[in-house]
């Protein structure tokens, strides 16, 4: 009847000149409909409350009022994603319906701004490193390293949105029967080693991606494992460590779906110093630091600052015997690059110590990659470089041009680099795996902004024992950013922190560093970062 009345109003020529009266009539009818909906909403809420009293377990019920508000939000131009899968649609709608529910666990930005850097941390940092959430594991070991520049054949496992770096720990939960069979065959081998490659997104999406980068991977040695049988389904939980880089030469898919590939083990080229290659006399050779007895000092016995000053003194003196200025030698000096990178990393983690840094130039360059939330393409680019000096120079350029952390989807500012701290002995960022088998490289921060917390706290499968996790989403685009961890014991310090996944973060230069200090911290100012050209990060070598 309501639609018929509206039709009669617009079909009657006598009312054509009286549009205001027609609009008033329509508004009155809409208000009457809304009043009816309010009555229905109240009745439905009464029914819901009675059912909740009868069934205490159903505490996340969604009333008709929330559905109506949600549809009005969409009708008024609210954000609506384009999902082709019904399950993703249902999950997205349920998250938005429960966003303001009493059962959610919201967090105000005003509260996070008052959080100070945690000191005297009482949490055992060895627990996340041991991956105790996977249960009791059996230790094992194999042959960690293969001969450099050799060609070997090994099974390959593809991991989505993850690049394994030499020295990095990789936890896996495997349930697919073909991958379980692959790991079981690897466990029977003496070396207990398999190859890890990053899954190329161009294969599924059709977008143009540099194929050569995805041909570089890293070997993984299994260090511990656990095999379980749930409902007659074999599942494996393993912890592997990245060892050596390799380049994919050729591959073939077996009948069971696993990939067997021929790879080439690659290593860094041992470039001699500029003084040695360009010098004209024997006095231009680099000098090694020694103590009073004439014994050589290792990097752990000689601090970075003192070691660089010692090297720079001799380098500056000997550089005049060559055709290059002293500052050119310093650009490619390993000690100088290590010192500058260490200073930049102290901006990310103020409690970082020199003793936590690896000694060798190659090991140090790979360790830096695991400490910073870089994109997959940048990590693959650094992985395929065959010069430690070139890798260190790229990393130094990256660190100097990264001051804030933004959402990788909408460029909304989430945190600053000074908000990063370490909750694990392995550093502020480490890889963890969830029950679904998805690997997340999680960066821990003690303060964030522009995040919405969805759902209730849960201690199930917590990567940090003693803390309950809550899902975090970007306030602008609703992208999953990570989790907030809240202590269940009042004696734990810190009482709460955030673990954000690497794939959801994008290090960028703050607006104040680009266009002046007069830019405020509002969302519009930082949102404009997505339209700003990012500075180049690859140095010209």
Structure explained in plain terms:
The chain has a six-stranded antiparallel sheet with strand order 10-11-15-14-13-12, with no helix packed on it. A five-stranded mixed β-barrel has the order 2-4-5-6-7. A three-stranded antiparallel sheet has the order 9-8-16. It is globular, with a radius of gyration of 29 Å. The chain has helices spanning 2-11, 19-54, 64-75, 86-97, 109-113, 126-130, 177-188, 202-205, 274-278, 304-318, 326-331, 334-348, 361-369, 376-384, 388-400, 511-515, 523-527; strands at 138-139, 151-159, 169-174, 193-198, 216-230, 233-253, 259-266, 404-407, 413-416, 429-433, 439-445, 451-458, 467-474, 480-487, 496-501, 505-508. The model is unreliable at 1-19, 51-64, 100-104, 106-111, 272-302 and 512-541 (pLDDT under 50). It has 541 residues and is of the alpha+beta class. The chain is built from 17 helices and 16 strands. Strand 14 (480-487) and strand 15 (496-501) form a beta hairpin. The chain has three domains: 109-128 and 403-531, Peptide methionine sulfoxide reductase (Metal Binding Protein, Guanine Nucleotide Exchange Factor, Chain A, Beta Complex); 149-266, Archaeosine Trna-guanine Transglycosylase, Chain: A, domain 4 (Roll), CATH 2.30.130; 274-400, Up-down Bundle (Methane Monooxygenase Hydroxylase, Chain G, domain 1), CATH 1.20.58.
């Amino acid at each position: 009847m309501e639609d018929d009345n509206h039709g009669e109003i617009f079909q009657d020529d006598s009312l054509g000149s009286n549009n205001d009266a027609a609009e008033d009539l329509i508004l009155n009818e809409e208000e009457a409909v809304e009043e009816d909906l309010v009555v229905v909403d109240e009745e439905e809420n009464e029914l819901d409350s009675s059912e909740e009293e009868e069934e205490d377990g159903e505490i996340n019920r969604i009333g008709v009022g929330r559905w109506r508000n949600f549809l009005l939000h969409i009708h008024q131009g609210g954000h609506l994603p384009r999902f082709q899968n019904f399950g993703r649609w249902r999950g997205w709608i349920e998250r938005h319906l429960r966003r303001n529910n009493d059962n959610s666990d919201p967090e105000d930005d005003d509260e996070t701004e008052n959080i100070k850097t945690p000191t005297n941390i009482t949490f055992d940092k060895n627990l996340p490193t041991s991956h105790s959430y996977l249960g009791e594991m059996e230790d094992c070991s194999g042959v960690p390293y293969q001969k450099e520049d050799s060609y070997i054949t090994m099974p390959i496992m593809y991991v989505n949105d993850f690049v394994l770096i030499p020295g990095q720990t990789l936890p896996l939960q495997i349930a697919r029967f073909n991958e379980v069979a692959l790991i079981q065959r690897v466990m029977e081998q003496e070396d207990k080693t398999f190859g890890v490659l990053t899954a190329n997104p161009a294969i599924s999406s059709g977008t143009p991606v540099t194929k050569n980068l995805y041909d570089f991977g890293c070997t993984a040695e299994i260090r511990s494992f656990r095999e379980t049988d749930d409902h007659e389904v074999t599942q494996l939980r393993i912890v592997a460590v990245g060892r050596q880089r390799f380049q994919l030469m050729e591959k073939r898919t077996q009948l069971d779906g696993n990939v067997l590939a021929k790879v080439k083990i690659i290593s860094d080229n041992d470039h001699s110093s500029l003084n040695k290659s360009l010098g004209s006399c024997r006095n231009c050779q680099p000098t090694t630091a020694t103590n009073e007895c004439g014994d050589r000092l290792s990097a752990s016995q000689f601090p970075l600052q003192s070691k660089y000053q010692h090297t720079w003194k001799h380098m500056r003196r000997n550089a005049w015997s060559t055709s290059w200025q002293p500052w050119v030698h310093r650009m490619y000096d390993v000690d100088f690059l290590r010192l500058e990178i260490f200073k930049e990393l102290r901006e990310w983690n103020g409690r970082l110590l020199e003793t936590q840094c690896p000694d060798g130039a190659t090991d140090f360059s790979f360790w830096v990659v695991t400490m910073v939330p870089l994109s997959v393409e940048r990590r693959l680019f650094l992985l395929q470089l065959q010069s430690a000096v070139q890798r260190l120079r790229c990393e130094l350029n990256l660190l100097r041009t990264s001051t804030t952390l933004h959402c990788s989807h909408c460029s909304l500012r989430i945190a600053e680099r000074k908000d990063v701290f370490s909750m694990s002995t392995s550093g502020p960022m480490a890889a963890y795996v969830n029950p679904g088998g998805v690997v997340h490289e999680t960066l821990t921060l003690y303060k964030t902004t522009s995040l919405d917390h969805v759902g209730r706290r849960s201690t199930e499968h917590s990567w940090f024992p003693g803390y309950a996790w809550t899902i975090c989403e970007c306030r602008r685009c609703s992208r999953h950013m990570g989790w907030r961890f809240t202590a269940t014991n009042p004696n734990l310090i810190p009482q709460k922190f955030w673990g954000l996944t690497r794939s959801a973060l994008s290090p960028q230069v703050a607006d104040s560093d680009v266009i002046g200090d007069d830019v405020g911290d509002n969302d519009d100012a930082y949102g404009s970062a997505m339209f700003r050209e990012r500075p180049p990060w690859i140095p010209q070598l």
